[in-house]
Amino acid sequence: MKPDYIICHSKYVLDIAMSFGWKAGARYTNLRDVKHLNSVHFIDIDWKNYDYDRHLHAVREKRPALTVARDVLDATHLDEILREAEVLGRYCETVIVVPKDPALMDEPRLSVPYMFRLGYSVPTRYGGTEIPTTFFRGPVHLLGGRPDVQRELARQMDVQSIDGNRLTLDAKFGDYFDGQRFRPHPEGGYRRCVTDSIRNVKALWETDTDHD
Question: Beta strand pairing status for 158-163 and 175-177?
């Protein structure tokens, strides 16, 4: 089964992505981006300035299929984060928990109950998890990263959902994802870059992997 590919961005980009079958998401700080939609698949967070009350309010209002709890950067905070995730789960189908503290590797499934989906933060120059993929058992959500890296990770984990805006960042500079890497678009233009990137990412997932 192919994973749900989610994008959180402007109405302009969301409309393009949804025409290819992608799911719409929004940060709880930017719900205006999805006010034209009848439903929202994913509520993302402002991880740098996390506000649990604001997050919970958005999830209660939108009732998404998915949302993500704040990152588990310190194993001593896990119980508190799981309690928050349990409450969020009353208003959405699935809550993603993102373990990042290597100390969690001492426990089965990184101490995250099966009622939650594990979130794997794809390593980039901006951060990501240091925990090996072998510790991520059961359904997994990929957060961020390049499309080719995300596709390779699906060979190692049971990837059920993905979110990321990398292609929109490159599109600002006239680059697009050609199915293997980002490079300058032969014609240029933000819309062409976004549209062709999404088309090529979708095609990338048409090819089976060992885990698939």
Answer: unpaired
Beta strands 23-27 and 42-44, pairing class: parallel
Q: What's the topology of domain 4-165? A: TIM Barrel (3.20.20)
Given a contact cutoff of 8 angstroms between Cβ atoms, the answer to whether 58 and 28 are in contact is: yes
Instruction: Return phi, psi of residue 2, to 5°.
Output: -75, 145
Query: At CA 96, angle to CA 79 and CA 92, rounded to 5?
Result: 105
Could you report the per-residue pLDDT of 44-99, keeping only the tens digit for each?
Answer: 999 889 999 999 999 999 999 999 999 999 999 999 999 999 999 999 999 999 99
Rounded distance, CA 29 to CA 64, Å? 15
Contact 142, 160 (CB under 8 A): no
What residues does each domain of the chain span? 4-165
pTM, rounded to two decimals: 0.94
